[in-house]
Amino acid sequence: MNVMVRILIGGLTGWVTGKVIEKEGRVRVIREGNHFDTIYGGVGALVGEYLFFWIVIGKYNAFNDYATAILGSIAFVGAARLIAAGC
User: Fold this and answer.
1) Distance CA 45, CA 34 (A)
2) What is the pLDDT of residue 83?
3) What is the pTM of this model?
4) Of 67, 4, 77, 79, which is closest to residue 35 (Cα–Cα)?
5) Which segments of the chain does DSSP mark as H helices, in order?
6) Residue 33 — left, alpha, or beta (φ > 0 → left; ψ -120 to 50 → alpha)?
7) At 59, phi and psi to the nearest 5?
8) Which of 14, 43, 56, 72 gets the highest tally of CB atoms within 10 A of its CB?
9) What residues contact residue 25 under an 8 Å CB cut-off, 6+ apart?
10) What is the pLDDT of residue 6?
11) What contacts 62, CB < 8 A, 6 or more positions away?
12) pLDDT in single tens digits along all 87 residues of the chain
């Protein structure tokens, strides 16, 4: 998958993940804003291929590329939010 497409999908997924977490009432973490969630999502999408390589059965399937980008984005935003809430 193209790197730019992966970053765009990750950014969008990160933003949506931040909005969903925001609804759960984590007021303390929300102060940093959803701009960081978009950045974290893009980075998570790039890292997702390496984190979730065991899920991918067919390496050259477009669906698997999108799935790893989305899972990586959600995991990275979630980890960033947990670290920020713990401080």
Assistant:
1) 16
2) 81
3) 0.76
4) 77
5) 3-23, 27-30, 34-51, 62-86
6) left
7) -65, -35
8) 14
9) none
10) 85
11) 1
12) 588 888 888 889 988 888 887 755 455 555 556 778 888 888 888 888 777 766 655 566 777 778 888 888 888 888 887 887 775
Instruction: Please give the structure tokens belonging to residue 52.
Output: 């979730």
Give CA–CA dist 85/29, Å, rounded: 6
Rounded to an integer, what distance in angstroms lies between the CA atom of residue 87 and that of residue 8? 29
**Beta carbons of 35 and 9 less than 8 angstroms apart:** no
Domain extent listing, the chain: 3-86
Here the tokens at position 68 are 């790893």
pLDDT at 36: 81
| Residue 24 CB-density burial (10 A; 0-12 exposed, 13-18 middle, 19+ buried) | exposed
